[in-house]
């Protein structure tokens, strides 16, 4: 068991490290948030590149400093979509530049497990596998529709940013869908996804000990259960395909994103 955990961790780390090679350009240097990064720069299957400086992802932004807010303003990040639940967002309100177009999109987030429920699920095993399963697909249309509306309608001179609390699960699924639409290869989507393990390492470390104490599991076991793995995002896509036949059908039926809208997004966010 221990050997399996170590090997799995090494593989995930290697995949994440491949994405981190351009982290100096990708990671936004804010003091009050983690995992705040540009989604641009990725090559697409048709030889284009996702534009830099137009779409950003992040963990919670409730602790941004005045300097951070000025940086967001400078980067023209004035459209923000928040995937947290109502209680989450009230407990830690976003700090935003003036005149920001803010949208709370909480579908499914108010049913996320509390610490006691999380401990129970961790002890049962397969916690994230369940999170990325049926419920993830069930809520994805309502959760991610506002983001794609903003991506379609945002002024070309402006940037869009979206986030949840850790900027990894809900935000990771949103990013995967966006990059899929832009024809970014699956392996690149997975590299971007698992990179949150590295960018959130400091925050994750602080979570492991309390969860281990509450659950009776070791910190290594908790870390293995909580780590983002390529299989999770693959499972998310497979769940969509199982229910809708294809990702494209899901986008059309649940989000109103058909061939015309996909073409607009590709023209707008790749070059």
TrEMBL record:
SUPFAM superfamilies: (Phosphotyrosine protein) phosphatases II. Pfam families: Y_phosphatase3. Belongs to the protein-tyrosine phosphatase family. This is Tyrosine-protein phosphatase.
């Amino acid at each position: 068991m221990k050997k399996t955990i170590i090997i799995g961790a090494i593989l995930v780390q290697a995949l994440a490290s491949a994405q981190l090679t351009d982290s100096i350009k990708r990671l936004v240097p804010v003091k009050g948030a983690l995992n705040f990064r540009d989604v641009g720069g990725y090559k697409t299957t048709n030889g284009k590149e996702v534009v830099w400086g137009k779409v950003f992802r992040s963990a919670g932004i409730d602790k941004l400093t005045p300097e951070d807010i000025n940086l967001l303003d400078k980067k023209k990040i004035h459209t923000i979509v928040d995937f947290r639940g109502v209680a989450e967002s009230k407990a830690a309100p976003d700090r935003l530049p003036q005149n920001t177009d803010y949208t709370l999109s909480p579908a499914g987030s108010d049913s996320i497990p509390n610490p006691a429920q999380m401990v129970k699920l961790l002890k049962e095993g397969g916690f994230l596998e369940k999170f990325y399963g049926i419920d993830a697909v069930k809520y994805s249309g309502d959760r991610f529709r506002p983001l794609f509306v903003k991506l379609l309608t945002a002024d070309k001179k402006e940037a869009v940013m979206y986030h949840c609390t850790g900027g990894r699960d809900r935000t990771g699924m949103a990013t995967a869908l966006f990059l899929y639409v832009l024809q970014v290869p699956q392996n690149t989507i997975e590299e971007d996804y698992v990179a949150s393990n590295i960018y959130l390492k400091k925050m994750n470390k602080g979570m492991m000990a309390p969860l281990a104490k509450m659950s009776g599991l070791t910190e290594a076991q908790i870390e293995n259960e909580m780590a983002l793995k390529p299989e999770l995002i693959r499972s998310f896509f497979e769940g969509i395909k199982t229910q809708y036949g294809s990702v494209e059908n899901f986008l059309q039926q649940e989000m109103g994103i058909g061939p015309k809208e996909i073409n607009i997004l590709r023209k707008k966010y790749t070059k």
